[in-house]
Amino acid sequence: MHLTTEIAAWAAQDTRLLLSVLIALIAIVVLISVLKIAPFLSILLGTFIAGTGAGLPLEKIASAFSKGAGSILGEAGIIIALGAMLGALMADSGAADKIVTTLLRYARGAAIPWMMALVALVVGLPLFFEVGLVMMAPIIFVMARRSQQPILRVAIPALAGMTTLHALLPPHPGPLIAVSALHADLGTTMLLGFVVAIPAVILAGPLYGMWLAPRMPIGEPEQIGALFKGQQAPEMQPGFLPSLITILLPVVLMLGRTVAKIWITPETTLFEMLNFFGEPIIALTVTVLFAVVVLGWGRGVSRTDVGAILRKALPPISGLLLTIGAGGGLKQALLTGGISDTITKVATGTHIPLILLAWLIAVALRQATGSATVATTATAGIVAPLVASLSGTHNALMALAIGAGSVFFCHVNDAGFWMVKEYFGLDLKQTFATWSVIQTIVSVVGLGMTLLLWGVLA
Question: Where would you find the membrane-spanning parts of this chain (predicted)?
Fold first, then answer.
């Protein structure tokens, strides 16, 4: 790898910043896994270690942490709370059981992981990963319990399906931004995205889940597991159709918003309606209210009991919300310290194949910032001038390579890492072995497939 004169801009501050980030990440892992400090406090301390090492004033570190934590809790926190309420309603009413009972008619034993991957692909198509996880959680827990399968064998295919869609396929924000920045064709990108996604989901999902589950036995976490335990006898459960409508309602609403942005004229009544109801927080609020009526009041459940179900959903996720907020604070502090600029200096000073360069830039930015969307957006902006002369097909493959790089080895500065850890009751080592490895498989398979298609379609 040869460095150009562009790397001359590298300064001692860049080296100091990278070392500070490395020391902070090691400190966070040691604080949580060795000293058993709560994740929220460990990440907060790690943020100050990184910020101080990078030369930021203490008040600026605190301000960045508050801004990042508030930003992510402002949306992801509300989404998780609404999702927990919806999950509790679906579990308590028996709706989740009804869906699982129907799925078990078509898939048993070794076929269950494949069924879960397919369900996650359908449910997760228009949803942010955080929304998809809170929607799938009751199905994952009930399916594992009813089928007597290890929970990781059921969960990993669902996680793989959702993260692959988030990385590779519009209408997710990262891929859409990359398509726009690189002037790629949306239809071509979606078609090639499905081609790339299929082997990624298979390898990172059912196959990896079936390999890992017996080697890392995980029991059902007590608090979250109790949240998704149904209270209704089979004869008292709602029908399959209202249960299915409940879980698919936010999917349809958010997909409608995407359709509006792509194909409907802005500032028309239809556009405004679809855009409003497809906003994730609005879509989930509408779905929770729908579930209150259809799965609660409409079936004769008293207002007092429905209110109790909604309230019991919130205490188990309080620690999760604080941890996710801390992850957002760490990410913002690193961005304030200039980590994106440092990574860009390295990337632009190298001479390697264009598609591999794009993937590596996205990988580096994801490791530094903890955000797939930030990594995709920044990388697309960096490489856009270099791909102006490429064909629409090759620009589509560039967008997919960037998306694949943006999900490489998620770790402690990402909200999704902590969501998976807390939802499934994992320790740090187990979370790395599940979530981080799932994303790495998706990322590497995505790169391999885009390189293959690049050669085939050249």
Answer: 17-34, 40-58, 70-91, 111-144, 189-208, 239-260, 280-301, 313-334, 346-365, 372-390, 396-420, 432-457
Enumerate the domain spans of the chain.
5-65, 66-456
What does the alpha-carbon distance between residue 444 and residue 440 come to, in Å, rounded to a whole number? 6
pLDDT digits (tens, 9 = 90+) for 357-367: 899 989 988 88
* Long-range CB pairs of 273-278, under 8 A, 24+ apart, other chains included: 277/253, 278/253, 278/254
Q: How far apart are CA 357 and CA 180, in angstroms?
A: 19
Is 35 strand, coil or helix? coil
* Confidence check: pLDDT of 2 > 50: no
DSSP state letters, 128-165: -HHHHHHHHHHHHHHHHHHHT--HHHHHHHHHHHHHHH
CB contact set of 445 (below 8 Å; sequence gap of 6+): 196, 199, 200, 203, 204, 404
User: Residue 371 corresponds to which tokens in the numbers above?
Assistant: 């955000």
Using left for φ > 0, alpha for ψ between -120 and 50, and beta otherwise, residue 44 falls in alpha
Amino acid at 307: G
> Is the pLDDT confidence value at 1 over 70?
no
Q: By CB neighbour count within 10 A (0-12 exposed, 13-18 middle, 19+ buried), where does 186 fall?
A: middle
Assess contact for 131 and 268: CB atoms under 8 A. Answer: no
* Rounded CA separation 80/377 (Å): 25
Hey, which bits of 382-445 come out as E strands?
none
Model confidence at 4, pLDDT cuts 50, 70, 90, reads very low
**Tens digit of each residue's pLDDT (9 = 90 or more) over 30-76:** 998 889 898 889 989 999 999 999 899 999 999 999 998 998 788 77
Structure-block tokens of residue 104 = 């078990």
Residue 19 dihedral angles phi and psi, to the nearest 5°: -65, -40
With cut-offs at 50, 70 and 90, classify the pLDDT of residue 287.
Answer: very high
Which residue's entry shows tokens 């209704």?
232
Q: How confident is the model at residue 181 (pLDDT cuts 50, 70, 90)?
A: confident
CA angle centred on 300, ends 298 and 305, rounded to 5°: 105
Phi, psi of 58, deg, nearest 5 = -60, -40
pTM score of the predicted model: 0.81
